[in-house]
Task: structure prediction
Amino acid sequence: MKTLYKVIFLILLSFSLQSCLVNRCKRPQITGYIYDAETKQPIEKCNVGETLTQANGYFSLDEKRYRQFTFFGFEAPMLVIDESVKKEGYESQNIQFMQPHGGGMKKGASHNVDTLYLKKTPFKTIK
Result:
């Protein structure tokens, strides 16, 4: 009987240790294009998060992951994304979205924001 308890204990211990250190998604790969709202032309060298857009307005933010210690059966935290989009002479925007179970997204997760159109900032006249 003692042997049975030891076997059951070892099985439960191995199941609980399998999920102790998990790989969580901090931000999926984010891709898209940035265009001028008036001319519909791509905006080059626009700051999107920590990257710049290419000549065709394309940007790609790399996926970010982290490791977290957790116990068996604990759910992944909600994932909230808020990346800034800035270019001098244009109004700033943010890329925002939420995944309720996003932290548990598998490696290689991606999100396409399609095309963002930035408006030029109005000129201020000095009197």
